Amino acid sequence: MTTTPEAPGSLIPTLPGLSYTDPEVFRREQERIFEALWCCAVRSAELDRPGAFRTVQIGRESVIVTRNRSGELRAFLNSCRHRGARLCTEEAGQLRRSLQCPYHAWTYDLDGRLVAAPNLVRMPDVDRSAYGLVPVALREWLGYTWVCLADEPPSFEETVIGAAVERLGDAASIDRYRTGELALGRRITYDVRANWKLIVENFMECYHCATIHPELTEVLPEFAEGYAAQYYVGHGAEFGEGIKGFTVDGSAGFARLPHVADAQDRRYYAITVKPTVFVNLVPDHVILHRMFPLAADRTVVECDWLYAPEVVVSGADVSGSVELFHRVNVQDFDACERTQPGMASRAYRDGGVLVPSEHHIGIFHAWVRERLAAGPAGLPSDPV
Ligand code: FES
Ligand code: FE
């Protein structure tokens, strides 16, 4: 165990309770965080043919992600340019050659161009090229489609890839897991009645591990000491003696992924990619969480378990590894839901405190404050 960087015993304050309950704070987070930064939207392989689509909530916008007729990914705001009707009301589905608005039947091709509208020939003034769907910037990484609603998106390399690599360090390179080439073995969606920041904070610390994660601390005994793996750059938590795999009972998992280094074997790495993604790396699979904050007190989390394609194709039983982190998720989200009402208590008006093993959460809080302070001028002063 590496030495802790803080003065022993020091406590630092958290954000105040209002940050987790106030709709106005949440609105500003939507504007200045989720609508300003890159958010992970969809596992790209789910969109397996032209016209396959997913809709996701990013900040205050519904976004459609699909593939055009050449198979290239496209993302658009899910809003008709005629009079604003929502185009796709379903979460996922298959479009034909085009996307037709259910209200007055304006029709867009899979590149977002307006290609038809009733009576259009009798409306020579309508410049079709001016009324295409509003495109949304997208990038692919780790096999996921990431979208950014900003007019000028920040550098993906710096704010997403760079931030993830920095957390993990070169020695434990995330690239070795070839996450983009893995196959989806299981997905579980959790509707969590808690503020998204509680979920981030919980993921960042392991002070709670000994209390609420009996199965996880059995597999990763050092977690019982309260120090999270991501506390130290490049530190992976080592499997306990006698633990054969990252499974609910420590039984053997699958073969190590082919490019994972010896130094990464029998270790668990965790990375937070702000604002909405957690990546968990173990030798034979990757677990990736995507958060979709819907309200100050509600966050939907999609958790994917990704394995070598041959494991999924063979129909092998993945339940041993799924069950371990599913239990961890339920334990964590229960804790977040238990905490959410306390955020509105006068006991938490001025916030709480972070003990030394949680001090890196203070860096997250500083980041949130900075994001909310940076934005269009003229908004009310910062309530967080
Ligand atoms: Fe979509 Fe009228 S609102 S066609
Ligand atoms: Fe936890």
SSE string, helix = H, strand = E?
Answer: EHEEEEEEEEEEHEHHHEEEEEHHEH
- As laid out across the biggest beta sheet, the strand order is 12-17-16-15-14-13
The secondary-structure class comes to alpha+beta
Radius of gyration: 22 Å
Q: What are the SSEs and their pairings?
A:
Elements: E1 12-13, H1 23-34, E2 39-43, E3 52-58, E4 61-67, E5 73-77, E6 92-94, E7 98-100, E8 107-109, E9 114-116, E10 137-141, E11 144-148, H2 156-168, E12 183-192, H3 196-204, H4 209-212, H5 214-219, E13 237-238, E14 267-273, E15 277-282, E16 285-295, E17 298-307, H6 309-313, H7 319-343, E18 353-354, H8 359-373
Antiparallel strand pairs: 1-18, 2-11, 3-4, 3-6, 4-5, 7-8, 8-9, 10-11, 12-17, 13-14, 14-15, 15-16, 16-17
Helix pairs in contact: 3-7
Bound molecules: FE2/S2 (inorganic) cluster and fe (iii) ion.
Fe (iii) ion (FE) binds at residues 202, 208-209, 213, 328, 332.
Write a brief structural summary.
The protein has 384 residues and is of the alpha+beta class. Helices cover 23% and strands 25% of the residues.
Structure report:
The structure is a single chain. With 384 residues, this protein is an alpha+beta fold. Helices cover 23% and strands 25% of the residues. The strands form 5 sheets. The protein has a 6-stranded antiparallel beta sheet with strand order 12-17-16-15-14-13, with helices on both faces. The chain has a 4-stranded antiparallel beta sheet with strand order 5-4-3-6, with no helix packed on it. Strands 2-11-10 form a 3-stranded antiparallel beta sheet, with no helix packed on it. A hairpin with a 6-residue loop joins β7 and β8. α3 packs across α7. The longest helix has 25 residues. It is globular and about 75 Å long. The N terminus is likely disordered. The protein binds FE2/S2 (inorganic) cluster and fe (iii) ion. The site of fe (iii) ion has 6 residues, from α7.
